[in-house]
Amino acid sequence: MSNAVETDRVEHDPVRTNVIETREVCRYFGTEEMQVIALDHVSLTIEKGEFTAIIGPSGSGKTTLLHLIGGLDNPSSGTIELSGENIATMSGTQLADFRRDHIGFIFQAYNLIPVLSAEENIEYIMLLQGISADRRKKRVQEMLAMVGLEGMGARRPAQLSGGQQQRVAVARAMASHPDIILADEPTANLDTKTGISLLDVMRDLNEQHNMTFVFSTHDEKIMERATRLIHLRDGAVEKDERK
Amino acid sequence: MLTGLSMIGGYVLCAFSFSLQNGSYGNAIDIFTLDHTGHIQIHKENYLKRPKIHKTINNAEEIGRLLEVEADIVSFSARVFAPALAYGDAKTSPASIFGIDVEKEPQTSRITQKVQQGEYFSASMNADGFYSAMIGQGLANTLKMNVGDELVLISQGADGSIANDIYVVSAIVGNKTSHDRQGVYLPLAAAQEFLSLGNDVHEVVIVVDHRDDARGIARTLQDKMPDVTVSPWQVVEATFFKTMEADQEGNYFTMAIIIFIVFIGVLNTVLMSVLERTREFGVLRAIGSRPINIVQMVFLETMLLALISIGIGMVLSLPLILWFTEVGFLLAEPIDAGGVAFQHLRGEFSAFVFFAPMALILSFAAVVSIPPGLRAARVLPRDALGAH
Ligand SMILES: Nc1ncnc2c1ncn2[C@@H]1O[C@H](COP(=O)(O)OP(=O)(O)O)[C@@H](O)[C@H]1O
Ligand SMILES: [Mg+2]
Description:
The complex is a heterodimer. Chain A is an alpha/beta fold. Chain A contains 8 helices and 10 strands. Chain A has a 6-stranded mixed sheet with strand order 6-7-8-3-9-10, sandwiched between helices. A 4-stranded antiparallel sheet of chain A has the order 2-1-4-5, with helices on one face. The N terminus of chain A is likely disordered. Chain B folds into 2 domains: about 170 residues, no CATH class; about 120 residues, Cathepsin D, subunit A, domain 1, CATH 2.40.70. In chain B, the strands form 2 sheets. In chain B, strands 2-3-8-5-7-6 form a 6-stranded mixed barrel. Chain B has a two-stranded antiparallel ribbon with strand order 11-12. The two termini of chain B are about 30 Å apart. At the A-B interface, helix 2, helix 3, strand 6 and helix 4 of A face helix 9 and helix 12 of B. The structure holds adenosine-5'-diphosphate and magnesium ion.
């Protein structure tokens, strides 16, 4: 990395860099007559290194917001900038490549390809990125160790518990060196204890590697661990608190 | 899984029907040509269209020497033909004389198998100075003749003279539907003598190694023997050949339908398995796979599955087709060919039977994987992952 870039960033913002910036984002579903307002003028900035929880009751727009931030969906109006790039203007392939290189995803369930082993699941994105086999293998082992699954790389998803599967998903998300990891109710299918320990793994990665996380949840015990809470209600930001 | 099964099924079905189709076609040709037509025939020019006793081949020996050295020829045999009147004890009947080479004819036709009563004749005279004759079932019935009876033949010789002689019936051949039901088989030399033909013959019939080569060999022979006409069985039995070809076309149509059904079946199962995996493709798209990556993936998966299925299909069809070729189906009603009954329908065992379905299934798999692949590539992560 060149010094010029570093200096540039420091001049621009001496403390933090914005990873996400949404301005007046709206997302409507359905027809003119039967319109559902899933997101209603949401403006947010997420900064590098934050560990943010998006909370709110079911149907409040958490998933919709995460999909928009992750470039899986397009806003009805408003702009979304990811690492300084406006994703609204990108083509399908550009967006796919952007997701591959800049965003890690963890979903509530069915994260992993059932026919691939844990290692192969983690390796997949690096394969798409064209990383050499040696480096992929090395990084897969690092990632497995980071999420506490050393020695389980050869197992298939079906041979892993729900908590272990989600850890593999975290490892896969980390593997491609994204700017941010988005997780939509990653603990919803786990019992409280397993859910908390998954959150602890994420929190460690956040602290030790300064990885930015945004996750949604409606579990009190889980949201406790976040450093920032964004409350959504009926598609609008009701409250935004930093701890 | 289902896709694999339908591909295996498709392979076995195709291989089997190819075997059946080629086998039954080949069976029919063999049954037909080896009764008396042979694979290639040599005549004097125009004899086939308008047979006349004087249109003879007068260099049969020379032709024999040429045929002797041809590698693709299994056997050949000379014949003479003439119409005659046959007298029994009380009745007369028109008859056809077939002068055949007693030694060589059994190698070019099924004449020996067609003997129903008595014994296949010999070339020499008996102690009383009579030659033997074998007569068709129809003639035997009309003249009420049995083996051992004397038969009088009257005809016209090639030189215009009246020919008549007495023969001893040594065998009754074929049945009432045989082409030779009115026939009188005579040893070649006896017939030539009777008809004042000298050493001339009317026909030289040839059996080759592979019936499919008949046309090519006939062409080569024709070039070597410009003074006679060489005709492959397809020309000699033009009507039979055309019927056969029409039948073959009908079979191709049936095959096309079978193949189409297999095609639709495979397409359907591939599509279904893609639909089942919508979530998986949604995740793959979400984490950054390009649509083309997904199409490639479905393509490679389908091809791999096709290769595995073909492997299994080959292992399964090998014994089946081997059995079908060696043993065959027992026909409910045997096919009768001039008094020789064919009990079994047999298949063909050849590279074609195994590799044609393989090529077919592989190209299917390639074509069939494209629409589901495109479909999988169009999966929107947002829809696939649902709204939680
Ligand atoms: N694809 C869609 N089509 C129609 N309505 C949708 C769709 N996705 C979400 N919605 C609606 O948008 C609102 C917000 O949904 P969602 O973002 O899934 O909320 P949450 O994740 O907080 O439960 C809900 O009213 C939901 O019914
Ligand atoms: Mg949701």
